[in-house]
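User: I'm curious whether this sequence folds into something compact or stays loose and floppy. Could you predict its structure so I can see for myself?
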Amino acid sequence: MYGFAGYDSRSVCPVLMQGLVKYALPATQIEIDMFMAALGFNKSDIIGKYFNNRIEVWDIVPRNVLKDTYGDMYVIDAEIKEIFASSQGVVDKSLSSLS
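Assistant: Here's the prediction. I'll summarize afterward.
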């Protein structure tokens, strides 16, 4: 972890370091949809938002996903939230829910 950042005093987010992805281009939305489906995520009605029974991720759009010359995908900026069902409904365990 490199440090922390925030959004208009609403939340605190970790800033992680990532190695340079050489010769990469933005992935298309179709490539992203296929990539996320292969990882076991369902597509939401909102573009760039995916979920499974434990995790919800969003902002998975071409400007935030790179594809290298080998076809490997790199998500460089995403919002992640752990969710799980309880007897009271869905529980939100995201960093933004703590602020």
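Summary: The radius of gyration is 15 Å. Residues 26 and 66 are 5 Å apart (CA to CA).
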